[in-house]
Amino acid sequence: MNMLLKQTLTASVLATMLTGTAFAVPAEAPPVFVKRVADGLITRLKADQGKLQNNPAAVKAIIRQNLDPFVDGQAFTRIVMGTYATNQNSTAAQRAQFEQNFRNTLIENYGTAFAKYSNQSYTMRPYKATTSKNPVVSLDFNNKGDKIPVSFQLADHGTQWKIRNINVSGIDLGLQFRNQFAANVQRNGGDIDKAIATFKPDADAAVNKK
């Protein structure tokens, strides 16, 4: 194969790959994605409801399998770390460690909440289509007569959506967790490693903050 033909074929393959990446879009509409994730989680909770309260390991396994894969951990990490997520203020290794710790602690938080699951339901709010790569889908969880509004901000990953932030009852969890982390950095004298190791995002405190 002569050099010109080889270069032409290589350029053609690269162009095809780049074009496919640029125009790849999630197959599901945002509300369809959120409904699928919510229904999958609730189905598992209903199926295992009898053993949840006294088996935290089972609850955490359900969260890991039915919610964690749909969370954009890197985006959530950048939101929560804020200015500490920049190359000037942290290393790639520190950010990776933060993401791992953050995911594990969120699983603990959600596990505690879902261990109390007792056939709660939800209703989807009307969704207005948008061209944004970060659309927001909102729903109301019905908990013993109380409606808890929850909004999921999504991230376009080309072939599927992922959850990059959550708003509960008008409270931006990403922002509240960011404030909690910044306070933890200060408590640790600016030591990022210690701040990451000791950071425990408190969802209850975040949601109840007025």
Structure description:
The protein has helices at residues 3-23, 30-47, 56-66, 73-81, 92-114, 173-187, 192-198, 203-208; strands at 121-124, 136-143, 146-156, 161-168, 171-172. The chain is an alpha+beta fold. The chain has one domain (26-208): Tgt2/MlaC (Nuclear Transport Factor 2, Chain: A), CATH 3.10.450.710. Strand 4 (161-168) and strand 5 (171-172) form a beta hairpin. Helix 3 crosses helix 5 (92-114), helix 5 runs parallel beside helix 7 (192-198) and helix 6 (173-187) packs across helix 7 (192-198). The protein is globular.
* CATH topology label: Nuclear Transport Factor 2, Chain: A
Tell me the major beta sheet: 5 strands, antiparallel
Shape estimate: globular
Element order: H for helix, E for strand = HHHHHEEEEEHHH
- Which stretches are poorly predicted, pLDDT < 50 over at least 5 residues? 2-23
**First CA to last CA: what distance?**
69 Å
Mean pLDDT: 84
The number of helical segments is 8
Number of domains: 1
Share of helix among residues?
Answer: 40-55%
Can you identify the CATH superfamily?
Answer: Tgt2/MlaC
Identify the strand order in the major beta sheet.
1-2-3-4-5
- Give the tally of β-strands: 5
Residues in β-strands, percent: 15-25%
CATH architecture: Roll
Structural class: alpha+beta
CATH class: Alpha Beta
Radius of gyration, Cα only, in angstroms? 20 Å
